[in-house]
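Internal QA ticket QA-208
Title: Verify multi-chain structure generation after dependency bump
Assignee: T.L.

Test input:
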Amino acid sequence: MPRPPSSQLTEVELQILRILWNKGASTARQIHNYLTEDRNTNYSTTVKMLSVMLRKALVKRDETVHPHLYQPAATQARTQQKMLKDLIQKVYNGSAGSLMLQALSSQKASPEELAEIRQLLDKLEGDEK
Amino acid sequence: MPRPPSSQLTEVELQILRILWNKGASTARQIHNYLTEDRNTNYSTTVKMLSVMLRKALVKRDETVHPHLYQPAATQARTQQKMLKDLIQKVYNGSAGSLMLQALSSQKASPEELAEIRQLLDKLEGDEK
DNA sequence: CCTCAAAAGCGAATTTATTCGCTAACTTGT
DNA sequence: ACAAGTTAGCGAATAAATTCGCTTTTGAGG
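Actual output:
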C-alpha cells in the first residue's frame, strides 16, 4: 500500500503563495529572490516548484508576457479560512471557540485589533437576540 | 541536496496524539483500533508509527506493564499553542488579531464561548490603561 | 515447562516532496 | 540574423513519510 498524497499545502508551497499574496504577480526570478531570503535553494528548484504548483492549480500563469508572471489561484483570505478550519478540526477537536480563547489569551493583538474584535463581538451577540 | 526534515507534526502523528489526548494512555492495539476508524492501515504500521514517535519523543511509553502503554509527551494545550502560533506566523503574516477576526466571523462559536471571549477581552483592555 | 496467541521490532519497499544538472527556447543588443 | 544571457522545462536523484511482511519476544493457561 502506498502513502496517500497530502491535501495540505506543503512548506514551500505556502511560502511561495505568501510571496505572491504580499508582493503581487511576480516572475519566477523575483519569487526565487524572495524565497532565498529564507531557504537556500537553486533557481531550478523554484521553477520546478512553480510548475508543480501550476499542475496542482495553486497558481496561475500569464504566458503572454516574458518572463512569465505568476499569480496565486486562490485569495489569501480563502486559503486562511480553509487552513483555519482545518486546524480547528484537527487540533481543537472542532471547537472554534476554544481556538479563539487560546488565540486571545496567548497571542498578542494590538489595541486597535482588540477594539475591532469587540465591535464584531457586539454585532454577533446582537444578532442572537 | 536532500529535503530537510519537517519540524511539523505529520498527519498520522497528529491523529495518534489526538487519540491519546482524548482517550488517555492506551496500548498500541487500542490506538490502532481508534485509528482504523479513519484510516485503513495494518497493525504493524501503527506500531511502527509509535516507534517513530517514540524516537522523536512525541510520545512516552510505560514498559513496566504489558502490553506497553503510550502517552503523549506534550499536553494538548501546549501543542495547540505551538501550532496556532505557527499558523499565525505562516498564514496570517504574524497578526494574531487578524486570525481572531476571521475566526470570529467565519467559524461558529457558542453563546457561552462568546461570553467568555468578551470577558477575556474586558480583562485585556483593562490591563492596557 | 510447553504451547498458543498477542505484542513488539526490523528491514525493506513504495510514494511524496524536494532538489538540481543539463538542455531547449526566447530576448535583446549588436 | 547571430551571440550572449536569461528563462523555462525535463528527468533523475535523494530524503522523509508511510506502508507492511516476517521474525522475535512476551505472557497466560494448562
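Spot checks passed. The longest strand of chain A covers residues 59-62.
Status: verified.
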